[in-house]
């Protein structure tokens, strides 16, 4: 589109504040966005990139009139489709909703009313903007929309409840709702952060197609710079509510202007697949098999007599060498977490053999991990895995108490050592999990495992809830710990970019079947199974970087 | 969703529970020294005429051991015979029926008021524009939970019967006489319900789907009525069931204050007079009430929330998401 036409979205000097909750906030002002200026033209995608707390979602909400109660625009102006929308009341916003702005949310699993059929919720979107639409016409439109967003058998799908659909399908339904009234502007607020890599690719492809088809302007919020580069025309980088740079992707790829952008880029796994190559396996890495899995089967019993049992794992065999990083990859539902729980002795299995440090596990499973000094499981969601009423000190000391290890002074010392080992300041000892950042929580979870000095850590997606840059810090920490303590990692992940950086050996699971298991270098250079190739293709930022971590000129 | 097998299983479970309750009550009453029925009939204070007393002795076979009496009881129960009161020799079934008729209309009205009060307070406490109004509405449930119902009842009588003279405090004027006791009962039971509703509504309104609804252009009132209310009311259904049970089982205090002879008052006098057959009948009735309310609640959960599957142990959330067999 020509430059002389007014941009679709023009943000000038936007500041947003949340209502002060404390005296300090009132004194210092609780601005979360400070004087941000942006613009977006029809048919283009602008990516807002930043870590959590950078204000990217707040900006998205401010320009779409979706700010939560207590937040308000304190300065600047937002012009959308030729109209100044900053300062509009909720009532004044309503005619713009759906028709001008469509909104694709972050978490598809909780973004639909769980009690209503999918069809009714799309029909509601169609009729909300135009009451005169008959139910029948709205229903036909809903079928058309579902078909457009790539949901097979749309007529039958209308009758589904949200819990009967997968995350990717739900996001498609939400996209259908967002485009129901043909908006000119689409906000996608981290639309794929809750989804698998392969699903992410398909969803973003769909959004791209819709943008081209309808000439939509898309405001794409993400914390992944590689994703932003790959999917947008312009990128705006934010930190602490301040806009650092706002330029065309082509220019940014040549050389990021801001040092922070360069750092964000370096933290994207795909940008530097060999970042940790020199920190590879320590000398302790031997041929000794520390975890052995042979022909393991696992089926979940059916919920009702009529259903068939759900097969979670089918004759899975693998060897984890002492001192290595062994990655297990696959999409959700592939059986990764089930395998992790079996190896940790927490989940029973139907058939096969699991040996950890020479000790065979009982197929019946156990109520608790009887040998934490051998192997420990670190959970995916650190917030959920830490008792909210415990202080950091108590959380980290608990394994020692359970093991009746040492006296009080001894425990205090070991707790502090564990905090040191994960680079957490002692000042956090008396905080509770809710008062910590995501990265700090994951460090506490690691410290809790470290106090018992296990040989093997099973890490179940330890960084999937974290920003790219926090993820990179945690990964560095994991390498430090491995070097100091000669640990072995069984690393569960769906992020092949990250796995490529850190793993020595990779096993790929698909629907409970191990389809490929090979040394990392071999697997990434020449994937043999079609499913592995598909996973690799979906890693964002593939085409942007060559093998040496340098940005290719676009 | 609602399979015949499920209903049958639940019905059998309920019958088993009632049998156990009945046997335990019988046992508890017979643990007392001596034969409770014989003791009661031959109590010198008991005003029964000799002929009635002899009739009762013969009917209950007081000369037989307890176990024989229990079997006799059970056999008669299966034929719908609840026996005769030890204090006046009247049919227990008739007495219970009378009390229940008194209670059921009152309970229904009190239930309607309870839901009305709780919903009103919860809506104001959650959605009122003014913060002050919201805070005030939040204080009401605390007040209604802590105010004793005899006090509330007497205040209502003082105002509406004595001061305003709208309702008689003594004679039964039919429906009008139900209003004050129903309000008293509802005032007490609406407090906890309102608190759970407030919790439910505020958690429902901060769900991400509300943002999507707003972005779709649905009016705020539509969001509340069509989505937030239903989602927010689910957690209070269990409490509502308990309240229905409590209202039906009767409230001695409120019935005493308002001079009514419903189930609560009847229970009180039966226990006071150690009228064993009547106590047995009341226990049976109340456990039947609670069991059927429980069943209705479980069915209601399944009807409202599609995520709930009815399993043998009661309803539960499906643990595994059932994904449709198509790629994302």
Please tell me about this protein's structure:
The complex is a heterodimer of chains A (554) and B (328). Chain A has helices spanning 23-28, 56-63, 90-93, 118-129, 135-148, 154-157, 167-178, 197-214, 225-231, 249-254, 259-267, 336-343, 382-385, 392-402, 408-421, 438-450, 468-485, 496-502, 520-525, 530-537, and strands spanning 9-18, 31-40, 45-49, 71-80, 83-84, 101-104, 185-189, 217-222, 234-239, 242-248, 289-300, 310-321, 325-329, 351-356, 359-360, 375-378, 456-460, 488-493, 505-510, 513-519. In chain A, a hairpin with a 2-residue loop joins strand 19 (505-510) and strand 20. In chain A, strands 6-7-8-3-9-10 form a 6-stranded mixed β-sheet, sandwiched between helices. Helices cover 34% and strands 23% of the residues of chain A. Chain A has 554 residues and is an alpha/beta fold. Chain B has 328 residues and is an all-alpha fold. Chain B is 72% helix and 2% strand. Chain B contains 14 helices and 2 strands, in the order ααααααααααααααββ. Chain B has helices spanning 4-31, 36-41, 50-60, 66-78, 92-127, 131-146, 149-163, 175-205, 208-216, 220-233, 237-249, 252-257, 263-272, 276-304; strands at residues 308-311, 314-317. Chain B has a two-stranded antiparallel ribbon. In chain B, a hairpin with a 2-residue loop joins strand 1 and strand 2 (314-317). In chain B, helix 13 packs antiparallel against helix 14. The longest helix of chain B has 36 residues, at 92-127. Chain B is flat and about 80 Å long. The chains are: A alpha/beta (554), B mainly alpha (328). At the A-B interface, strand 6, helix 4, helix 7 and helix 8 of A face helix 9 and helix 10 of B.
